[in-house]
Amino acid sequence: MQDNPPRILLVDDEPDNFYLLEELLKSQGYDTLTAASGTEALAIARNELPDMILLDVMMPGLDGFEVCQQLRMDGGLQTVPVIFLTALQDDTSRMRGLELLGDDYLTKPINHKLLLTKMASLLRLQQMRSRSVPSQVNEQTKTQLSESGNINQILAEKLRLFVPEQFLRRIAPRGLESIQLGNVKEEEIAVLFCDIRGFTGISESQSAGETFKWLNGFFTQMNVCINPNNGFIDKYLGDALMAIFDRAGLKAQDALTAAVMMQQSVKEFNSNLVEYNLTQPIKIGIGIDMGIAAIGALGAEGRLDSTAIGDVVNTAARLQELTKHYGCGIIVSKATIARLDRPELFYLRWIDRVTPRGKQQAQDIYEVQGIATQRAIAEPILEPGVQAWQAGTI
Fold this sequence. Notes:
Blueprint: E1 7-11, H1 15-27, E2 31-35, H2 38-48, E3 52-55, H3 64-73, E4 82-86, H4 91-99, E5 104-107, H5 112-159, H6 165-171, E6 184-196, H7 199-204, H8 208-226, E7 231-236, E8 240-245, H9 251-269, E9 284-300, E10 303-309, H10 311-326, E11 330-333, H11 334-338, E12 346-354, E13 363-371, H12 378-391
Parallel strand pairs: 1-2, 1-3, 3-4, 4-5, 9-11
Antiparallel strand pairs: 6-8, 6-9, 7-8, 9-10, 11-13, 12-13
């Protein structure tokens, strides 16, 4: 007897048939399992993983054909040999059994010698396949993994054109396959909104293609200012952009430096207006705030977007709108000023204490006039003067 004899699952709703088949198979060194219905057969097969199934067709509930169909749909059982043992002798039933990928179809009364010969042949064939397939599968798997790895690498590189690396680290911490709705993290960031002034009037005088061309040129220059200062563009909003700065301890410093560079870069862009068929210089307004936001994958299962959500985002957008009212290039919140690592590097001017649209609490807002080569003399005098004005003492 073999050390590990093949296990054969017998499926029949007639107890007498069990007895005869069990005795026959045990005499040949097989182990047997029995099931009196199709449902029971599937449960036993999934738990015990038999080497072969001898399957009756006519049974209450699930018949043999339905059982075979479910076996062939089960990744763990689809290759298990199945021999139909049935009283149905018509060609239609026989064809049905073969169409469902049954390995053989024997009619009752069963020729025991024929059954044993077929069983032995199928088991030997299954054993030969199990020895040869792994090496083939290994080679195929290596090729597939290699191809899959290359494809994933290409996809990842292309995805970075649409989703910044800083976002991918948050929404896909274990590679592209790990992207899912709800991958989110709360953290402190600085948010910058930049908007082009008079965009509607400019675009009305151009074709859509011309507008696309100069917008791409403009955004390219803005990106050159943002990326070197440890920021990344979250999204383009037609004639505007939203950028995020997340470097530990230097978020505010990075955001203000980028904003000043962006204003300077616009002057360079305006020196090439003829190239873009523009008749008037481009002007921008920038708003910056700092605070806690949720960064992650937002949307629905079928369509996700990477973004940041929080009051800091709304406030930065409102401050950008205020640049129109006050005629400033850059307006930042007091919360941002308070987090500057080296405030002496910037020329800062207090503007007003306002309640931005949609907000309930008033806050101090400041204009960033540029980067200082030395600390402005007026700065120590300015803050006490502002405080006195707010207190009504002057």
